[in-house]
Amino acid sequence: MMKKIPLLVMLLLSPLLLISAETRLKLFVSWHDHPEENFSSLPSGEMKRAWRTAFPMKGRALVIDALRPVKATKIILPLKKLNLQSPEMVSEASQCRVFVGNDPQNLSLATEAVILVEGREIDGVPHETVVISGLPEGRYYQIHAPRTKTPYVFGLEAASKQVEMYSDVPEEVKAAPVQYPDIKDLDFSADQHALAIAGCGFRDHGNEERVASDPILAEGGAAQIGWPWRHRSVGFILEQSATLGKIVFTLEKMQMQRPEMSTGLEKAQVFASRDNQNFTCIIPQVSTLLYRDGEKLFARVTLQGTFSGRYFRVYAPWENNFYVFGSRRLNASIKAFSNAIAYAKDFAAPLSANGPFPVSFRLSGCDKSKGVASICVDDQEKPLWQADISQIEADTDHFITITPPQWEPGVRKLRLIIKEEGSEFPQILERCFRFHAGDHRLSPESNAGFTVTEALVGSEKTRFLTAKSKGATLEYSVPASGAYALYVTIKGSGQIKVSAPGIDSNLKLQLWHPADIEENLAGENFAGVAQLEATDKISITATSDSASIGHVILSPISSEQLGIYQAPPAIKPAAIIHADGYSDFYSKEVSPDELRQRVDQFKANHAFAYDWCVGTTAVNYPSKVATVFGQQRDVKFWRNGDRLAAERLHKLLSSGNDPVRILRDYSREKGLRFSLTQRAGAYYSNSTSRSMNAQFFIDHPEFYQTDTNGRILEKPSYAYPEVRNFYLGMIREMAAYKPDAITIEFLRHPPFFRYDQPLIDEYIRRHGNFDKSNYLDDNWQKIQCEIMTAHLQEVRRILDEVDPAIQLEINFDWRAYYRQGIDLKRILELGLVDLISPGIYHIGTDKYFPVKPFIELCKLSPRKVLIFPRIEATIFGGDPTPEEEKGLIKIERKSMSVPMFQQLFIAFLDDGADGIRPFNSGGASLSKALADRSELQRFKTFIMPLLDIRANIL
């Protein structure tokens, strides 16, 4: 039996503990909650460091990973009373049990363990030192102290720093560190031959059987993930179908404290598909290169074999509880290579043409291959040019003159097609260019003030005039009367002013994203449309130093194009501009006047609505249900910005200024639609981000979600009535402000249910029995959906009681909504909502999804339901971290630009959407750009086609 020594005995013996020549060991300390109180194994899942941790607590165990098998002489736990409201003065840690072993799935009770407890007070707060000795050898030590009462009373302030383990055997003598090669000494130039990937992502399958059948979603391509891990796979989709010879992953060792050096991909399986439905499993040959980049360790893992298709998934069974390797940004970690012998590259075309034009490319390996190379236009199969591969000189720029047939004006797409003998799929490279046989390429009347150079732009030699100083001007004569679009080729970051009768434009090189501008990049830019006479002049003035100008082109336009350009404004507010209600305070102090200025700004720029998020389960308004940010007991702030945000918000509220009240009243005065957002599942770690959580949920972990391994997750579950009632209490407070609408944000953050006891009980009540195989089956999902639908019915009832004019809006995952508990069909049939915003949860480049299915569903509602697709604007990046605040790291970030939003909104409008809901982005310039339908049509006609026609200067 395990031996417990009473507190009094411990006080007499404790001085002996000070006499020690033992070695303190390095540890990894975490905690797990076991609802079934089975402590003979560790739950699978990511091992998270334990910081502020309640212990003892019902079902909770502290887990110590010694990183190798050790014979521990003692473990010391310094406990402190954390719940000062409780009358209890003793922790009950004297009843500790310790389970030890080297196999995390097979731990044994340490029956000879001795528990000593010393109690004392520090500054009036009870503390206890728990010393555990008499332990067997092992790597994993799981410590549990039985406790039947709730909530917790004692715990550790910083468990990962405070928990101590000692051994009388010295630490192993460390072998000389392995000298991994440095990235600067490695040659990855062959990566330039990687094929274009249309999208990538990861998927957690739940069980191994689904790996071979689940379709590849290609969502989460810009995410940071641990992988391999549990039943997680990584998938990618090629731009074109191909037969791959190798797939390469670059993975970072994410948990440097772990001793494992294997990525886990040694057991990788590759699943290939042509249609994303039927997959073939191939076992690849795997090789791994470990190297360093600064202080970071990377693994370049190459999977070789023959993999044919367009859709590819890589899966490796991961038996450890915790991932070790992963990717900071998945889409930068994957390279796919064709097994072709001949590789085409550097396919180039001119920016525009008005007659015969050159194209160029290089072909490698063609001297060792047989087949045909051809060039086609658009989707036509008849080639404009064709040759045997064997006739093409390898690794040399190959120039061909294309004589166009009778082409209509517009943007054309050239395709270089390499079809090798014996290869199932051809290689296809594509380039776009603008063609108009009637284009006039103008020459300036004088080059004074400019330097003349010549460079290869795409496949065409182009003369550039570079201003010697700001203010230098070129003049051009209009050759013939007519209606023209004016295009100017600009190089790099230069800026110019273009003036002509009816045209007055400030121009710079416009790309899909301004951050992509480089000095060796050039492209045509639309300056405007005008009806010009042969006697008219065009002037171009450099408004920046070294502005560099290439072709100046007058391109005849049709009467329809002239009508599009001259159309008067057609204003229809389209964008719901969202504020998260927290970043504002994180960055700076916010005054009442500034809040009102925002309303003025968005009203003037035709926003559809201004949407203010009230917070997470912590809020930015005076609440009797939730907790104001930073006002929790024993609050700790993850970042300094969190502390400042709490102080700034407290200052604003203390002065009698409620930001919600200010925004609501002023929006009503100015006639701007105003909505409030409740985040349905935003909950953060109590140990690091307590300031973001409601005190109610901090005090009631019994309402947290549970995974299938019995681990308690720090997130409330809607399976519990108490959780739903909390959110309904918030809804009542929000409705009292009488906003125009209340939005429930189901994209922050699913899931809302897990393997929770109330759901299990209900399943048994309905169907008589239950086992783990029933989790997430159709019956389970029906129960989830019925609970959430009833919750939304109660929300609708509360709004109607306060003011029937308050509308209800919901945002949700466009693909996974039913699995997450959102029965959209039933919600619409019941007439519960007035506006829906389907969206993509993950960050990344994929932003479009089909809207038409939701238009059909909305017809089921007795209400007029609007559709505003919700767009996560982040392409890559994340929230600020403590390390970034301190200047230790810099997180790269990129978000959608206004042209990206315009292109996406045009596609959604074509599908029948009513507007758009940007998330993590959006300002006055965006609301203005999306509100004028005439301006959108001008962008679609004259600017958008050019943004895909850019070329490097050689």
Topology:
Elements: E1 3-5, H1 7-13, E2 23-24, E3 28-33, E4 53-54, E5 60-71, E6 74-81, E7 97-103, E8 106-109, E9 114-122, E10 125-133, E11 137-144, E12 154-156, H2 159-162, E13 164-167, E14 197-204, E15 225-226, E16 232-253, E17 269-273, E18 279-282, E19 285-293, E20 296-315, E21 325-327, E22 334-338, E23 343-348, E24 352-353, E25 357-364, E26 371-377, E27 385-388, E28 398-402, E29 410-420, E30 427-435, E31 440-442, E32 450-457, E33 460-467, E34 473-477, E35 482-491, E36 495-500, E37 503-508, E38 521-532, E39 537-542, E40 548-556, H3 559-566, E41 576-579, H4 583-587, H5 592-604, E42 609-613, E43 618-619, E44 627-628, H6 640-654, H7 659-670, E45 673-679, H8 695-699, E46 704-706, E47 712-716, H9 721-736, E48 741-745, H10 757-767, H11 778-802, E49 807-813, H12 824-829, E50 835-839, H13 852-858, E51 866-867, E52 870-872, E53 874-876, H14 882-885, E54 894-895, H15 898-911, E55 917-919, H16 924-931, H17 933-943, E56 950-952
Parallel strand pairs: 1-9, 24-30, 41-42, 42-45, 43-44, 45-48, 48-49, 49-50, 50-51, 52-55
Antiparallel strand pairs: 2-13, 3-5, 4-12, 5-11, 6-10, 6-12, 6-13, 7-8, 7-11, 9-10, 14-16, 15-21, 16-20, 16-21, 16-22, 17-18, 17-20, 19-20, 23-25, 25-28, 26-27, 26-29, 29-30, 31-40, 32-33, 33-40, 34-39, 35-38, 35-40, 36-37, 36-39, 38-56, 46-47, 53-54
Helix pairs in contact: 5-7, 9-11, 10-11, 15-16
